[in-house]
């Protein structure tokens, strides 16, 4: 970021000196004084005279504030949400956890689970009813832009040509917990289904809830522990990426079959979803590729590409929401078809680097205001249910991934690490749970229990790996991470990937710290693919605009 | 953006090949099949069996949508606002106007002035009551972040050491229209003051309304016509920068004296404002400079600096709003004290490049929904008032600037150009007018008339300059602007300054297109100062962190 700045001042200084004085015939001193009096003195005197005549006393008027206005309340709440999320993230890093977990916990702390218990009045004063829709607007925009980014990251992962063992482990780490969740659904439906939780929708939802692995959070953990380039690291990332795609598809099906709709409406949703998906993945992709703003060859078309990204994500999200799915499905699909080439990827990197830290914390607040630890009810029944789901979630993920890996020839130690890693549910699971709750598929009690399961399984990943003594087996050379401060990330990664794709950050970092990497997404994709595939796909650099 | 990307793939490919196959003992074909059946076949069969048993029929539920939900409505409206603003901006550029004028007109077109006349139902369907607070949240955030940027840009302008003629012209171009507005206020107060428009507040407001020159819009026009480096170009930019600072101060006073408050409350506001301003400009600046996230020496602390920027702007805005001024004053002040050094300026450039095009259009919508052309009432009285204010606005600005310039030795032709240029009121004036209307200082009728005056005086600047045959007298070498497409901007400028500071863009551009310029704000400041001062201030590069 520093090396290429030639000094631009020398040239312009000369120019300015050359043309500045030559144009003006400098006025005499007397002229200056008289002009000053005429153009400054007289007008100021007039203004002063008017003010004196009118007097500055307050005439009775109808305006006037009372307490804090809505705008001030909104701005105050917004600042608080951002600072709390940031502080939570920093604290999490200190505790050896991925920052997003701290941000989620900060959201919970501002809601009825902590602040609402300590001081309900403070909570209501900070987030009054008029301000909530305003905060929700930022949350919705933050969520769809985050889902766009998830889709975009997943689109960068090529599944073709991967080793058999990679594919099998990915399938197993998803299918075993998914099937278990579905099989257990009839037993839990009575006490856990929400008002719209038809048996099929509830079963699918529970399957998804147990089988999700959070790609971004996992990547962050791998990076912090220096495990990104190890075999279990690469396998778990591959499994998370593949699994996420399937999970969103299954969630879409669950939402479509959620209750309260006639069979005709259900058919319409299914038809509409398939038609829209096909349209977007077929024609939509080609249209985007043809747009001048996303094609180059200029060095980024700036605002146009950013506007297209946000507006396109919003439209796509609105369409799937209108179809009866959820806004996030449309945003995810739009991310999938976003062109990987130069100007488009740059615009997405830049936009994400700002919207991720500025908007997503509002989603955590929305989540925190929704989540009430007390809703689960304290007692043996809740404890038992939590324990049961915890065991189910952990054991099926672990068995599916670790056993399958061991059977396909992965060393025992690496298989264990893999089994621990795929239990990272993190942010993805939170989004899945919130979506299921909003759609009425799951009730507040089971929602609360599942959130607890999510937090525990995610929080235990890093300590478990450390306890198991799984040190980096092939640390990246020149890595100067400071997990204690979280400030070791390269400008490249921080700029381009924000915190949503930290594995990518550190891949970028190997290219030399301090080097701006706005254009690096394509390169990072290549690097990511090597991590997954072990070799470089030919001609990959040509699939974008360049 | 391209030159420094060494190929990172060669190395990692070798590494991956080296450690990938060696770790895994490849399983036999039979083992593969049986593992596949166990981990993929069986779970899928279980899931299918559960689904079949449960059936996919819709149990009666309580959820269910009806029409478009609030989220879909919000996302749809958001996309429409962004695309309309973008299209308006493109159209304006085609017509030889600054893009922001097109964005403002797009906002008006979506409101009661056009869409509301053509099809009130469509307008109400697009922007229903539940969605308006959500859109307003984006608008408020967009406005305060824009005002932050205005403050930051103005802080870069050093007034010390400027030539006498520059200072005198700046004062004259502000003071003459200001005094005229104040003098005319008693005549217009009867028909134009709002419910909170005390005589003093109304007079100050009218003075500000007549005397504003829009720094960003002016800069854009100068750039498009290639006049940035000419004498009238530099003089008008200097006058706009100085005038803007005074205008926000005067507006703050007007807001403080607006009606509906007891003298005690008024005194409290005044005291609070002075105390807060002093605190921010004194201790606040030093605190910000000391924060690790804004200090470097790392290449940008990424999310932390961005969060600090947004949260700090929001807090500062909330404080001034709570004090009885307006949120934008606090945001402006926070922009004034934002450190000019490396990581802080980078973060601000990056944040602005995304928030400017993504959030500010919602302010234009808010404005458009507020502004009703019909509110002025069609008729001779309105036409007469509009004509009177137009003549007043144009003649006082023109006379103040042009005559003063001529008398201080500026050539006649340049003086005329200067007089035309300072009539650019643009976005700054729109913000001033909206603020006065919200505070109840001005009523709907006069507000509408003043908006019309603003639009006319801004729109006529570029054509007038062209008609007067004022060609660039000292075009910047190597400038390849394409005013017809608006895509001639450098990545540097587009990235760093967005559209808010286009003059800065092109200054950056001279350093070579395609070069990333995230760090260039300091250099651009220097360059900007040369434009104003004619020579380089010594030691300027040292005032930040580096």
From TrEMBL, chains A, B:
It is a multi-pass membrane protein. Residues 1-15 have a biased composition (Polar residues). This is Cation/H+ exchanger transmembrane domain-containing protein. Residues 1-27, 472-546 are annotated as: Disordered. Residues 82-466 form the Cation/H+ exchanger transmembrane domain. The chain crosses the membrane at residues 32-56, 68-88, 100-119, 131-150, 162-188, 200-223, 235-258, 264-284, 305-338, 358-381, 388-409, 446-465. It is found in: Membrane. Keywords: Ion transport, Membrane, Transmembrane, Transmembrane helix, Transport. Residues 485-500 have a biased composition (Gly residues). Residues 506-528 have a biased composition (Basic and acidic residues).
């Amino acid at each position: 970021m520093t090396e290429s700045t030639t000094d631009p001042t020398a040239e312009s200084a000369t120019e300015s000196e050359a043309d500045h004085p030559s144009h003006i015939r400098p006025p005499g001193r007397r002229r200056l004084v008289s002009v000053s009096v005429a153009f400054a003195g007289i007008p100021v005197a007039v203004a002063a005279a008017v003010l004196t005549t009118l007097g500055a006393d307050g005439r009775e008027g109808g305006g006037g504030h009372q307490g804090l206005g809505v705008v001030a309340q909104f701005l105050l709440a917004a600042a608080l949400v951002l600072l709390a999320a940031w502080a939570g993230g920093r604290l999490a890093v200190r505790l050896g956890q991925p920052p997003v977990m701290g941000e989620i916990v900060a959201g919970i702390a501002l809601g009825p689970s902590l602040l609402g218990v300590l001081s309900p009045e403070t909570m209501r004063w900070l987030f009054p009813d008029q301000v909530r829709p305003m905060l929700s607007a930022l949350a919705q925009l933050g969520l769809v832009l985050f889902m766009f980014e998830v889709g975009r990251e997943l689109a960068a992962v090529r599944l073709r040509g991967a080793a058999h063992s990679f594919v099998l482990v990915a399938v197993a780490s998803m299918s075993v917990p998914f099937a278990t969740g579905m099989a257990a659904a009839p037993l839990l439906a009575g006490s856990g289904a929400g008002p719209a939780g038809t048996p099929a929708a509830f079963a699918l939802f529970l399957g998804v809830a147990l089988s999700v692995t959070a790609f971004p959070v996992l990547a962050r953990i791998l990076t912090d522990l220096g495990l990104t380039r190890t075999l279990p690291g690469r396998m778990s990332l591959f499994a998370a990426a593949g699994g996420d795609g399937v999970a969103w598809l299954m969630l879409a099906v669950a939402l479509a079959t959620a209750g309260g709709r006639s069979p005709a409406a259900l058919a319409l949703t299914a038809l509409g979803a398939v038609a829209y998906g096909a349209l977007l993945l077929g024609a939509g992709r080609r249209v985007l590729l043809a747009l001048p703003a996303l094609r180059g060859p200029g060095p980024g078309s700036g605002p146009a590409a950013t506007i297209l990204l946000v507006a396109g994500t919003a439209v796509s999200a609105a369409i799937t929401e209108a179809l009866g799915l959820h806004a996030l499905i449309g945003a995810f699909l739009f991310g999938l078809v976003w062109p990987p080439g130069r100007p488009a990827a740059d615009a997405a990197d830049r936009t994400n680097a700002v919207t991720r830290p500025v908007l997503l914390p509002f989603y955590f607040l929305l989540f925190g205001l929704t989540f009430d630890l007390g809703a689960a009810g304290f007692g043996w029944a809740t404890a038992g249910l939590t324990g049961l789901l915890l065991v189910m979630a952990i054991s099926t993920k672990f068995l599916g991934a670790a056993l399958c890996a061991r059977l396909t020839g992965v060393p025992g130690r690496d298989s264990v690490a893999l089994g621990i890693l795929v239990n990272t549910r993190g942010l993805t699971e939170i989004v899945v749970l919130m979506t299921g709750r909003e759609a009425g598929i799951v009730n507040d009690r089971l929602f609360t229990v599942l959130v607890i399961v999510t937090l525990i399984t995610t929080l235990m990943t890093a300590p478990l790996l450390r306890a198991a003594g799984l040190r980096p087996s092939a640390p990246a050379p020149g890595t100067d991470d400071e997990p204690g401060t979280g400030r070791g990330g390269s400008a490249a990664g921080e700029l381009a990937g924000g915190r949503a794709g930290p594995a990518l950050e550190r891949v970028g970092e190997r290219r030399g710290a301090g080097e701006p990497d706005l254009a690096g997404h394509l390169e990072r994709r290549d690097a990511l693919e090597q991590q997954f595939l072990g070799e470089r796909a030919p001609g990959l650099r040509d699939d974008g605009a360049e």
